[in-house]
Amino acid sequence: MVAGKPLNWKSPKTLNVGRAWTLVAAVGMLSFPAARVFPQDSKPPLARAAELEMHGDHAGAEKIYRQILVSSPDDPNLLKALGVVLQEQGKHEEAITVFHQILSRAPLYPGVNSQLAVSYYALNLFDKTVEVARQELTANSKDRQARYYLALAFSAKGQSYEAIQQLEGLAADDPHDLVVQYELVVDYKAAMNAAAERLTKMAPDSEFTHAMKAEALSDAGRLDDAILEYEELLRKNPEFPGIHLGLGQVYWKMKDNAHAMEQLSLALQEEPNQPLGNYYMGDMLVDEQKFQQAIDHLKITVSVYPELARARFLLGKAYRGLGDNQAALQAFQDALKIDQNYKEVHYQLYELYARLGDKEKSQEHLRISERLTREGQEQDQARLQDALRKQKEANEKP
Length: 398
Fold this sequence. Notes:
20 helices; 0% strand; Serine Threonine Protein Phosphatase 5, Tetratricopeptide repeat
């Protein structure tokens, strides 16, 4: 079981939505003995079972399906429906037995191997999960549930790259599936950590290991330690690709503009169109009010990363600093197209529209800026109260 992967949980996009109601139509009008009646509900049994499922009464639905199966013990749709409600109750061993009743007669019956994958995964039987998920995909390569559980099983087995391959296929088919995107983050991180561990074991004092550690420390905010690793890397190989960009980024994070510019200048000598290097330089040059130089750098950044809102914001500030109000206005508007709640942009537009004599728009952006500031303060206060509450609860525990 991998952290972040609940055992008995399915992506909303992989569920058989409306399956129970579809079952009513698929099975058709079955013939039941006249004595089998449900006096407290005049609805047909299948419709009643479907209604119970929709309201979360899976035990009630199970009872009805079992009653119907007395008359039709081999009906695959009824067996599949029974297997699913058993799963919903956590009765995975029973569900597996029911699904195998179907597969013994029809090994590729649609969706059954996919449901089996759910139960095998819930029982931590990852090899079996892989087996049945692959079986489903041989008949239906687009079955999202089978592919999803195949990915989860690979991940649980420590096969992150295989998991990523499956998840990337799901993401390509539906880029908006947040569950899949989350699992991709988990598995890419696992793959990265595994590769880092192998590299460290293979060559603990190599330039590659020091470069890896420097980047990891920088990402973790341990900037002084990151600098030490970069300095060791410089000692071992001053020509290591990207070393000056990495060091420049660390100094930029530390707001040490002098050292950051020194390193970034070296980085941009090697690669003049490096977008992040130009972004960091542009940011510092705006602070130093060297607006034209900043614009030259930031234009390179937005040509590569047009959705980087802060680069647009900095461009607006630089244009405004040069007195080019229309170019500044366009840059700020472009930033708001990316992030309409960019508080600092609204404040800049408040001042810019005032300069342009448009009092109505100026006040509009001031109101938005004040609202966003107030909401941010309220969120900060709520987080603080939540942290204090959790701390109090922890202190009160025996």
